[in-house]
Amino acid sequence: MNSERKKAVVLLSGGLDSMVCAGLAREAGFEVLALTVDYNQRHRVELEAARRIAAGLADRHIILPMDLSAFGGSALTDDIDVPKEGVGKGIPVTYVPARNTVFLSLALAWAEAAGARDLFVGVNALDYSGYPDCRPEFVAAFQDLANRATKAGVEGDPFTIHAPLLHMTKADIAREADRLGLDAGMSHSCYDPAEDGAACGECDACRLRAKGFEDAGLPDPTRYVAA
Predict the structure, then answer these.
(1) How far apart are CA 19 and CA 49, in angstroms?
(2) 96 vs 5, 57, 105, 148, CA distance in Å?
(3) Has 218 been labeled as part of a binding site?
(4) Are 129 and 94 contacting, i.e. CB atoms less than 8 angstroms apart?
(5) Would the annotation count 203 as a binding residue?
(6) What is the pTM of this model?
(7) Given pLDDT bands bounded at 50, 70 and 90, which one contains residue 43?
(8) EC number(s) for this protein (predicted)?
(9) Is 206 annotated as a binding residue?
């Protein structure tokens, strides 16, 4: 029964990483409370992907509206072109200011309200675009913050931030999806999809995803824009 299982809030964007994260939380025996943030992102097709994934992996799913396009400052929330030249060394314009801090804060609020003390986030510090809020230091710092900023934490009922993909390559993540029996084709990673939802194949997210499946020796189930 769900009442006998520990609860975990899982940030579920609709991408491959968050899908695997939810699968791992379920495998660990948690009751999965999936949180998707509708931040008026350019790639809104990922919201539909999150719904599909949650239907199979989550015990409860909330899509929470929060319009970060009011702030702008990112190619995902503003009128800025998504780079298509390949993954660079600097922090790209697809970085959304403080996004993971904002999202984890929302997940923390739901966790405390729901009696959950475990949060899962699919950040990755190896094959990624260089975002500062995907690093181990960030995860550790947020866990410390969570236990200083909440009634539960202050009263000795601490939170744990799980980042099981943190030190995985994209190939590792693709293999985990396969091991867990997940349909990776249900997930969506592209930052600049076509109107019909097909992935562009050229943005950082598409390049990293495609390389991950290739390096893992697995077929890439992504539907790309026809050449």
Answers:
(1) 9
(2) 34, 27, 15, 25
(3) no
(4) yes
(5) yes
(6) 0.94
(7) confident
(8) 6.3.4.20
(9) yes
Q: Residue 35 and residue 63: Cα distance in Å, rounded?
A: 6
Confirm or deny that 217 is annotated as ligand binding: no
- Domain assignments of the chain as residue spans, ordered by start: 2-216
CA dist 192 and 145 (Å) reads 33
Task: Tell whether residue 17 is among the known ligand binding residues.
Answer: yes
Integer Cα distance of 103 and 151 in angstroms: 19
| 76 assigned to a ligand binding site | no
pLDDT tens, residue by residue, 84-106: 987 767 888 999 999 999 999 99
Q: What percent of the chain has pLDDT over 90?
A: 88
Element (H, E) at 37: strand 31-38
Both tokens assigned to 52: 């599909």
User: Which residue type occupies 119?
Assistant: L
User: What is the C-alpha end-to-end distance of the chain, expressed in Å?
Assistant: 49
Q: How far apart are CA 19 and CA 4, in angstroms?
A: 24
Distant-in-sequence, close-in-space partners of 16: CB < 8 Å, separation ≥ 6: 173, 174, 177, 184, 187, 189, 209, 212
Rounded CA separation 87/84 (Å): 8
22 is an annotated ligand-binding site residue: yes
15 assigned binding-site residue: yes
Determine if residue 20 is labeled as part of a ligand binding site: yes
Q: Read off the pLDDT of residues 104-142 as tens digits, 9 standing for 90 and up.
A: 999 999 999 999 999 999 999 886 668 899 999 999 999
Q: Which residue has the tokens 């029996």?
A: 181
**Cβ atoms within 10 Å, residue 148:** 9
Residue 221: CB atoms within 10 A of its CB come to 14
Indicate the length of the chain as a whole number: 227
Q: What is the CATH number of domain 2-216?
A: 3.40.50.620
Q: Is 186 annotated as a binding residue?
A: no
